[in-house]
Amino acid sequence: MLEDQDQVLAPMEVDENKPVDEAAVGPVSNPLVGEFTWALPNFSGSTGKVLSEPFEIGGYSWQLLVYPSGNNRTDALALYLAVAEDDQAAFQLQRFAHFKLILLSQVEGGDVVKDTQHTFTSRETDWGFTTFVPLAELRDPARGLLVDDTIRVKVCVEVKVPEDFIYDSRKETGFVGLKNQGATCYMNSLLQTLFNINQFRKAVYHMPTSEDADPASSMPLALQSVFYKLQFTVGPVSTKDLTRSFGWDTADAFQQHDVQELNRILCDRLEEKMKGTRVEGMINKLFEGHTLNYLECINVEYKSSRKESFMDVQLDVKNCKDIYASFDKYCEVEVLEGDNQYNAEQHGMQASTEHTSCDARKGILFEGFPPVLQLQLKRFEYDFMKDMMIKVNDRYEFYDTIDLDREDGKYLSSGADRNVRNTYKLLAVLVHSGGVHGGHYFAFIRPDGKQWLRFDDERVEKADQQKAVDDNWGGEDERMPPQGFGNTFRLTKHANAYMLVYVRESEWGAVMCQVTEQDISAHVQARLKAEQEEKERRKKEKAEAHLYTLVRVSTDADLAEQIGSSRFFDLVDHDKARLRYRLPRKAPFSELRRLVAEEMGVPAEQQRFWKWAQRQNQTYRPAQPLVLESEDQAIATIKETAANRGTRPGVMATLNLFLETPAPGGELPPLRAKTDIMLFFKQYCPDGDHPVLKYAGRRLVPKDTKIKELHPLLRGLGGLGEGEAVEVYEEVKFEPTVMVDKLTPSVTLAGSQLEHGDILVFQRQLSQAGATAGPSAKEFMEYVRNRQSVTFKPLDDPQGEEAVQLELLKTDSYDDVSKAIAAKLGLDDPLKLRLTGALNHLTQLPRPHPIRYRQFDALQDMLKSGPFGQVSTLYYEVIDLPLPDYENLLSFKIAYHNSKLEEVSQHSVRISKSASIHELLEDLRRQLPAEAQGTRPLRLLEVYQWKIWQLFNPRDRVETIGDNAWHLRVEVVPEDQEDLEQQGVLHVHCLQVAEEPNNQRPFAFSDPFIMRLGPEETVGELRQRVQEKLGVPDEEFAPSWKPVLCTFGGAELLADDVVVASRLDSQKLYGHQERNCIGFVRENKNPRRTHAHLNSRLAAWQGQEKQLRIRS
């Protein structure tokens, strides 16, 4: 916005340096394109801003805006295109236009032309050029711009839809992206990679498919469709048909999986589909290689080998500098010796006793590499020291080309074909950005072998070698501090290569062969071209939508069809109205009458239309008869009783009308505007097991009519017997609660405050003798509004097929719900059920915590998912106690360890929340082995990442343990530690740790323990007692078990003469606190299993992930 010294709102200035499209307008026949020419006389006498008369282009009203003496400057003419003043107050104003402003000259070729594009909104109602032409140049007679003190300005406008301004991947790169369905970026990156392996794409095109098949149920046809659209269409491609053909639902689309796993499963399924066709074996031909697993004894004449095929190679990243280091590690020789000698006897070798086991060499070599080499980089692995999955973000270099024949073919077996050169060129880099529990996938691909492209879901853009390769090596980035103050700092790069695709250089031409339309079946081309034509038609229709009004006319037939079946409240769903007309906004209303007369056979003079209005209580009713100025009145001028809504490109105005027609053979009754009310009637039939609500008709009724005077009319409409008593209710509203009021028979319509469009519901009087008892109309409509279909799934098998579906009420209490599901399951006691809600309607996974007994007042609260979400699934589990009693208990899984730290047994214990931890331990003692019986005290520890997180105070209540404790361990307190609570008695936490390259902090990997400590005890003395406690032999203990001080910042090697107590920082016995520990460094020969078997309910929930399947 320019500064305006005259306090006049300045028009928006355009950046003349910003590149714009060269084409300003389209063909003249385009209804979104037009031009207007304006002559401004008395130019020299004009001051301030001058507006042209309004003109219409593309369905919108515009004006030209000129400042003859300049705007905020006095040396240049300012010229703008503006939204017409009458339209500037329109609600949600938004217009997209590409336009050209032309100052016409009488001199040939002398026109001044500038073009631009802009989104016009209520804040930016004009756009153009403050310096359109210098005034000196304008007044130069030789230029022919100012003639007889008159200038002539021409504007050419093309109205566009928002999509026209979106980045065009096809135009910029020659390729288009794939739409993300929720969490399908991993699939999109793989599909783009496979698509750009041209021989693979051609094989997919050559798969035979049926002309009548549905892509949503035929995986080959769906994949052909995706590939065809990627090759020939202009916008992002949907994969919904493809995922449906996989047998996936919405929940699958929001569950992220491993791209390598999808690659294997997809190729397996395609290989099956290709059997018996001309492309049989193509998957293996492209991707299959072979390895040779060998084993040979060193001192014995024995050798064995086994040939195996592979579709991809998994390479280590951790502790490997680059891709060659990974191949070195993959093919390195393992020597089996000592305790790990090879047992040759199992192969039937005739061996003396001393040769039953022998030293041996074992390894893997490659028999042959495939034309397309897929390398899976092991970025994710289980860390036994941390007891969790981690992502390896280490720096790992890979190269534009790799030579797998290097060093005289050291990766190849003796039987490999040495005539084949195994030099490969990088085609694709699949990148994962994020961590173990989530992230985003995208791919860098160079289809022509030169220009890298980044495929990131819908967007495809060019990239250089640095971004595609070097930036995805991982490692750390050096960053400058904010404002440049302080030292640089390093950040881990969480976006790094996860999968690499190489193509053998000698076969690049064959693999990346040309793929044309001739490779695609004619019926596939026809089907997909028809889809594309339909898409273009819809796009054009959307672009021109604001030029039309959709008129939806509802009739008695619509009301009769919908009420009681698909609709119970209000009158009609306008989307389902039978009479729907797309009319130009300028079309006269008489055209609508003509179309209705043709379709319904009702003459124009017998048609009375009513306008709908939304009331303050959110109901939507016919509010008043439509009164026209004339039959030629334009459709666009007819507005509902609502806010003025400006039309926008891509949005069609909608006009809803109700059509009143005469009874068959009759005439349209006259409407007395001041005395008559249009009422609608619904009949409720409570008889039988299935009550019915239906539409009974409508009438114009005088306001002074009493409710009881309507009874004869209602009996006639409802087919009731003469003299049968009826009850009449008014349907007032249904949001947020149902309001259906019974009307007093002696009160008039006016006294009941009834008006046009009100709905009366009538029924046979229930109290009448002989009538079948049942719910009233009010009760029935409350039931309909509150009914809720709920799916119940067993908690222990949430992804299973077994489920129970019940229709309940949103207002049902917890007890009502549990009784209903218990009855369905055949359980005697509903209280022996525990329910758990669902996370959201997309994944449909259970929440980590169950619903407490009577936690919510109603079912609708139990089904809430977030502030606005609602689910329809609950999970159940059968328990052995009534839920109120069960919830007063806490359940724990606890492992018992002996004095040598060995895990002996696992136990489940359940105890009252009010119990102490001491009572828990004594209750648990009954389950423990004999060595733990007696009176020796027990203690309870929580272990996390192989460190003692906390020691629990036996006097605390069990509630302090919490629901989400990690690994709970119980042990007998050693005799020398029974007095640790006493003042002045010292103790220390001890860890078993291993050193890790490039890491200052050693990682714990085995069970920690507590040792009593003397005030002057040295490290050497403590080390000796640890050896005695754990029973470690001298030959194992002496060379290892080095003592280190483990602190938050790292580790420090300790000498034997150091007094331990002098290096400790805490003597807090119970509870959690960061503390210095003594670690003993030793080799981790046998990584321990994790504690997952003892984790809490939360940990079990976190492990739930739908298995990746392609069910087609």
Automatic annotation (TrEMBL):
The keyword Hydrolase applies. Gene3D superfamilies: Apoptosis, Tumor Necrosis Factor Receptor Associated Protein 2, Chain A, Cysteine proteinases, Phosphatidylinositol 3-kinase Catalytic Subunit, Chain A, domain 1. InterPro entries: MATH/TRAF_dom, Papain-like_cys_pep_sf, Peptidase_C19, Peptidase_C19_UCH, TRAF-like, USP, USP7_ICP0-binding_dom, USP_C. It catalyses: Thiol-dependent hydrolysis of ester, thioester, amide, peptide and isopeptide bonds formed by the C-terminal Gly of ubiquitin (a 76-residue protein attached to proteins as an intracellular targeting signal). One of its GO terms (biological process) is regulation of protein stability. Keywords: Hydrolase, Protease, Thiol protease, Ubl conjugation pathway. GO terms for molecular function: cysteine-type deubiquitinase activity. It is an enzyme of class 3 (hydrolase). It comes from the Eukaryota. One of its GO terms (cellular component) is nucleus. It holds the Pfam family MATH_2. Its EC number is 3.4.19.12. SMART domains: MATH. Residues 176-505 form the USP domain. Residues 33-157 form the MATH domain. Belongs to the peptidase C19 family. This is ubiquitinyl hydrolase 1. It comes from Chlorella variabilis.
